[in-house]
Amino acid sequence: MSRPSDIFERVSFEGEPRVHSNPFVSYLNSLHCRDSGGENALAEAQACNPLFNHIQVRNPLVDTIGDCLRGSEPRHIILTGHAGDGKSTIALELYKDLCGLPFNQPLKQPMGRREDMAMSSGRLASVVKDLSEWGDDDRLALLEEILKGERRFLLVSNTGTLLNLFCEYGDQYLAKSKGETESALLGAISSEQCYDLNFGGCHFAVYNLALLDNLSTARRILDRMLNPENWSACAGSDCHTHCPIYRNVSLMHEHQDPVLTRLFLAYRRMYAYGTRLTLRQLTAHLAYILTSGLECGGIFALSQRIDKPLMSEFMFYNRFFGDNGMSKDIPAMQLKAVKEIRRQGFGERPCPTWERRLWLLTRDENLPLGIPVLEDEFDKLRHSGSGEWKAEDVNLSPDQAREQVRRMLYFLYIFQAGDEFFIRQFLASPAILKWWSWQSEEARLSLDENEAFKQRVFHVLQEQFTGVRLPESAGGDQRLYITLNRHKQDIRQSAQVVIAQVDFGSEFSLELTGVEDEWGGTRKDLRLVGRGRLGEVTMWLTLPFLDYVLMRHGGEAAEALQAAYVARLERLKAQLINLGDKTRGDDVLLVRLRTNHTFVRQVYAVHGDRLEVANA
What we know:
With 616 residues, this protein is of the alpha+beta class. It contains 25 helices and 14 strands. The chain folds into 3 domains: 1-18 and 227-429, no CATH class; 43-211, no CATH class; 447-615, no CATH class. It has helices at 23-29, 43-46, 60-70, 87-99, 136-148, 159-173, 178-189, 215-225, 232-235, 244-254, 256-272, 279-291, 296-303, 316-319, 336-344, 352-359, 372-385, 391-394, 398-412, 421-426, 432-437, 447-466, 504-507, 543-553, 563-579, and strands at residues 76-80, 114-118, 124-128, 152-156, 195-199, 202-208, 479-483, 495-503, 508-516, 522-530, 538-541, 588-593, 599-607, 610-615. Mean pLDDT is 86; it is low at 1-5.
């Protein structure tokens, strides 16, 4: 294949420039902090912006809170969480709901720090959109008014301000120690479900948005961003064919499955491993990967340069990572989502079967991406990544070309059954596709899956509780031993004293259990459940633990169990010590690890001056 002089597609713009021809582009750029134009990132600014309706989705909590305030049972609402979790947006939506204003109608002026209204039932209600805007004395007076119960309140506050107010009020007026009040409030804030807090004779329904899974809401926001109505001005323009922003929108809209599914698979993997992004951070990142911070007039200026930039520099599959496929976009490093995504190391784990197909001289030439507008670019990147062209000739190193090919495959390629290993490797999560398949309403745990996962969970628990690395083929004994050991797997501890044991095969089961959240969604996770005498024993087996189980099964001995799960397993071990079978009297049960990696049981007993040893 001969190399043309200008090998990769570059940004071009035909016709006369039309600066800001699509106002929605400027609006999206106002949602992130890549540059100085992030004025619409806050709910206060969104309230009066008519374009906010183009991305706004109704939060299920609004109906729940509205019903609570209108109900016959006197109760106030507290919304807390991190900055950017959507507290003020919920307050805005509820204010419109209580005032009878249309959901999609912008306000004529921003909400005040307190808005009073009469509900349809005749009861009085107030919305306090941010308690941190109030002075100390005003906060105390406000809480005193709330406790009188003459009107219903929605109180929005960050955690620190809320704690300080309730502790100070309880200490001064209710003869409650600060420790007592703080303990009660922290218990409410720590709940993933709505928590009923009784304070000063009043009931508060407490919602901590920081603990709620917000990815389904973010997905709905992206759907709104991609709505064709927002891009009608671009679709009718001659320049849309070579506009990187419209290219991104078209690709993501026309290929929602796989693009959106895999986009949120990456977010889900981060969430499961403890990296939670607020709705504001997610919205900012989604806006950025669509526009790269470009404006319509800026695209025209780029197209007039002698050294026109590559179209791929602005494609979402690169901007998701905060770079242009070659170097970091330094201003984008301000985005929390970008910083966290780059820390994940997505795409760093090789997938040997696919690497062979893509890069060897005998590689699979008949491997189309399946996306006509990107097919030529994909093929040229494969040639560049194979080292057939010099890096200085194409201004792209083979490493950079290979990375872009992997990204394009991850986001856009339709994998056949059995080929999804590439996705699991890209996300460094062997269990994520299986977990994802369980989230459908009709999903069930098959008998084969149940048996396979149960055996592998048993294997990991046996290793954890005995401190011994065991091969997957180690015997068929289903007794789970808890022993005295040194917790060092680099030392062979062939003989250990048994503290307790349980029959894992008959006394434990695996269940696929759904848990509803306050957003109206349901997430399913595996749960290890005890039976009979172990009925009170249970442990959730979420994605990180399942990944570890499958990695151990695959022989990845260097993988370490997360510290949080080590603590959970220690709690499980303590429960089993209390409930499991123990040796009686002065007898000592030992298990010895034989060379074939199976355990042999021996009981040692002292009778008078004799030591008796028997196989158990």
